[in-house]
Amino acid sequence: MAAASVSAGTAKRRSGGVPERRLAWLMTSPSIFLIALVAVWPIIYAIWLSLHEYSLRQAGLSRWASPAGFGNYIDAFGDTEFQKAVLVTLIFTIASVVLETFIGLVMALIMATAFKGQGLLRTVVLVPWAVLTVVTAIMWRTMVDANLGFVNTILGTKTVWLGEEPQALIVMIFADVWKTAPFMALLLLAGLQVIPGEIYEAAKVDGASAWQRFQKITLPLLMPALLVALIFRTLDALRVFDLPKVLTNGANGTTSLSLLAQRTFQENRLYGEGAAISIITFIIVMLVSFAYIRLVGGNIRGMTEDR
Amino acid sequence: MEAATATGRPRATARDEATTTAKRLPKQPGTPWWVWLAVVAIVIFCLFPFYWLVNISLKTGADLSSADLVPPHPSLDNYSSILQNSDFTRALGNSAIVALVTTALGVIVGSFAAYALARLKMKFKFILLGVVLSISTFPQIAIAAPLFRLWSDIGLYNTLIGLVIPYLTFALPLSIYILVSFFREIPRDLEEAALVDGATNFQAFRKVIVPLAAPGLATTAILAFIAAWNEFLLATTLTSSRAARTVPVAISQFTGSSQFEVPLGTQSAASVLISVPLILLVLLFQKRIVAGLTAGAVKG
Fold first, then answer.
1. What CATH number did the domain enclosing B105 receive?
2. Chain B residues within an 8 Å CB radius of A112
3. Which among B296, B294, B223, B44 is positioned nearest to A192, based on CA atoms?
4. Which of A248, A299, B111, B126 has minimal CB crowding within 10 Å?
5. What contacts B198, CB < 8 A, 6 or more positions away?
6. What CATH number is associated with residue A202?
7. CA B250 – CA A111 distance, rounded (Å)
8. Is residue A118 in a domain?
9. Is A66 helix (H, G, I), strand (E, B) or coil?
10. Is there a domain that residue A149 lies in?
11. Is B31 in contact with A153 (Cβ distance < 8 A)?
């Protein structure tokens, strides 16, 4: 890029105003301060809470909690509700991310082909993304409703979808797929559009079939975008809260880890145990996030290099 | 630019979009029928559920217990009743304030940091950007528990400012991340010219970069606004009354304990009403939103 060419200004730049490095720190410090205040400090406090027996039941109105070591974590791991929440969260994450990726990929491939009216199609595809998650949940409640909904009519069933054990989770997965598969499609479409067309032309000349072209060109070249989108979605799915809260309030096998944690500390006022479950969720998400950052690490370096 | 990956960057999507697509596609006389069929399927998949919600919102009384695809007796009663519901209108106001303040703070504070990270010489850039990125993947639940306790102690529980502060955990990283990639797309020449003319770095930022980055700033603001408008976990954890309740919380609380009590008609009407501003944003700024999303996510 031509943008990188000018370097003569560097000497001049230091002459006016605050020195560059100090200005850099001045400009980043408000953000650093705020992030430390609103993210890092609460997490440290959450860890502290999770290591203490801190509940109205135990401490009454006293502000002081008694140290509990890893008691809250041990309690959580031994609790069947927690084990179930882990299972539900994992099933939800795997099922929804796999479905979203597959549907998103198919949608992206179609969108890349349908070049007439592609802009319109992109707008349409953004609608589910723009609809609030809470509204998505309400929408799906009405669609699967036993009296009002059309899902039973189409399938010819008389299922009370949100009132039965595996069905409620299935509705939750589908609601998530509806909301995020189109988002996935847009991310993948952007990935598709940077694959140079000449490669396809060449492969065609060599007699490669459409399937071979997909397998040997599209998929490998799309892989970086696909992996990033996949991890991005996995991180989101692991912390799912809105959908189960509004769809069923966690009934019938839909309590996710976030929902369980929130219920434990807010409704039951078991701060210690609630914080422990939050921290476990946090650790799970951070492990996946670590993989994500390693994957895009090269990109960050690219973004921060001086040029 | 070796740093660019095979994924879409805003510049590439905006400029190359037309050419790449056209180049790659075989020059067929027309799009085959099955593609159109698939396009129709996508449109139905994306829009039908929302149509369904609109449909329900126009039904009243006995119509609400039948699964008609078109309301037999369409009526706006649900809308007028929801607009007269002061809990709902108050929540609308709360949501607007929280989302706007969050967006403004996130974009302003974030743009300073993004400029430094994109343009200025400084140490630990890589670590800073890594931290920013990891904060954006934080599960909200991890800060909800401690804030729930803390806010009660210091009087921020059930206040709007008590929501704005934690909302910065996603608005700020999002702004910084997207703006870094937008700032880097601006040619250096103009800025250098300003510096040669004796402007300070900060003046170059304020007078040259900010006006040039206006589209990027707008994109970032839209994305931050949508994220804040949508937020539910913290809003439901940190509020307890209409004084600070935001729209998603207010709507979800129409959901009674029993499924039979739910006023589905009004709930749907409220859902449609609060989705309309966002859908309008999407219609108006489709290109920018896609550029922002791919800058923030695909480019990673």
1. 1.10.3720.10
2. 21, 24
3. B294
4. B126
5. A16
6. 1.10.3720.10
7. 37
8. yes
9. strand
10. yes
11. no
Q: Report whether pLDDT(A87) > 90.
A: yes
Q: Does the residue A45 lie in any domain?
A: no
List of residues 6+ apart from A10 with CB closer than 8 A? none
pLDDT recorded at residue A302: 64
Count up the domains in chain B and report the number.
1
Establish if B86 belongs to a structural domain: yes
Question: Can you tell me the mean pLDDT for B155-168?
Answer: 94
Residue A20 lies in a domain: no
Helix (H, G, I), strand (E, B) or coil at A270: strand
Q: Output the DSSP codes for B190-247.
A: HHHHHHHTT--HHHIIIIIIHHHTHHHHHHHHHHHHHHHHH--HHHHHH--STTT--H
Q: What is the domain range of residue B191? A: 10-18+78-298
Amino acid code (one letter) for A74: I
**pLDDT for position A275:** 92
Whole-structure pTM value: 0.85
Mean pLDDT calculated for residue range A2-31: 65
* Within a domain: B282: yes
Report chain A residues whose CB lies below 8 A from the CB of B267: 138
Rounded to 10°, the helix B33-57/A165-192 angle is: 130
What is the residue-averaged pLDDT of chain A? 84
Count of Cβ atoms closer than 10 Å to residue B284 Cβ: 12
Q: Please tell me the total count of domains within chain A.
A: 1
pLDDT tens, residue by residue, A243-299: 999 999 998 999 999 999 999 988 888 888 899 999 999 999 988 888 777 776 666
Nearest to A29 by CA among B174, B116, B126, B184: B116
pLDDT in tens, A187-205: 899 888 888 888 888 888 8
pLDDT for B108 equals 95
Residue bearing tokens 């502290």: A48
The minimal CB distance from A134 to the residues B21, B22, B248 is found for B248
Domain span at residue A286? 79-304
The model's pLDDT over B72-131, given as tens digits with 9 standing for 90+, comes to: 888 898 899 888 888 899 999 999 999 999 999 999 999 999 999 988 888 888 888 888
Q: What is the DSSP letter of A264?
A: I
Complex confidence, ipTM: 0.85
A119–B286: do the CB atoms touch at under 8 Å? Answer: yes
